[in-house]
Amino acid sequence: GFQTVQDSPYNTPLGIAFLEAGQEMGYDIRDVNGEKQTGFALYQYTMRRGTRCSTAKAFLRPIRLRKNLHISMYSHVIKILIDPASRRAYGIQFIKNGKTHTVLAKKEVILSAGAINSPQLLMLSGIGPQKHLEEKGIQVIHDSPGVGKNLQDHIAAVVTFLIDHPISLVINRLVNLNTAIRYAIKEDGPLTSSVGLEAVGFIPTKYANRSDDWPDMEFMLTSTTTPADGGTQVKKAHGLTDEFYKEVYESVNFKDTFGVFAMMLRPKSRGEILLRSKNPLEYPLLYHNYLTHPHDVNVLREGAKAAVAYGQTEALKRFGARFHAVPLPNCKHLPLYTDEYWNCYIRQYTLSIYHYSCTAKMGPATDPYAVVDSHLRVSI
């Protein structure tokens, strides 16, 4: 196809060790995009010649000169134009360089703005929960209570291991003249790494139905982790306070580590997206409601426990792997490794993997919270 998928141009020695550790725990190495998913594999990437192969590079760049295609960069869509009588979308409005522009559609408008901006634009255009739209002073074209509801996301508990060998991705070895030259000339090397992601494992916890190939836990296995940059960028990305980072990670700044991100695949907690105001340039309000369902806490706890066991396999012990067992600040009163400690752990250090979804639900006309039908047409 047009979008290039390839293996990583660069792996540390940990990549193959991650697969061997999975085998040691009784799982097969397989193509996780194939017939069966349970098992371990090296990551594949939408990458071309060492750089990201985005959808724009794959699909738009080859046809960008077509006379019937117009691409507007640096443009912010503010409204879908909908005829209140026929309820048909007939165009959009967008802002570019401080000016408002209108584009009319001959046939249809395709809304593809992601799980956050799609419901925001629908509500700004008059499709959404009637009471909420009226509170924001927006003319209601269709009362669709499911718009912005049912927000789901993949979240992960971070489990860090120290190792004795200088093979992981540490910032001062990752960013230097040698790696830059290797990247520029050979299009490989550590600068082609996708934030250290090397291997993936899909496993069932005790809460999954083991008679089905339907794992509920994903291990994102990285040849780096939180303190690899000395508390500069990763700390911010993970939303850690200075106090938390200093107590837990400062002692291992720039040390060789690897991480297991124990990610829950099918959360039962549900959030929602609401408008802050009818101003389309204001960010919407996100109420994630993470871990409000006890099932999610249970699955993440079992994933974290499995991650600790995974780090104790012989395949990883060869590198001197040991769990970074500094208790988290709010959990020090609980005995390490108990279920109570892990429940506390995941409530204190769990992060989003940015897989927001489900805020414009597909469903039959009998489902009052369905936003689109089976043909992806907005149900009005």
UniProtKB/TrEMBL annotation:
Family: Belongs to the GMC oxidoreductase family.
GO molecular function: flavin adenine dinucleotide binding; oxidoreductase activity, acting on CH-OH group of donors
Protein name: Glucose-methanol-choline oxidoreductase N-terminal domain-containing protein
Protein source organism: Rhamnusium bicolor
Domain Glucose-methanol-choline oxidoreductase N-terminal positions: 114-128
PANTHER family the record matches: FI04917P, GLUCOSE-METHANOL-CHOLINE GMC OXIDOREDUCTASE
Matching Gene3D superfamilies: FAD/NAD(P)-binding domain, Glucose Oxidase, domain 3
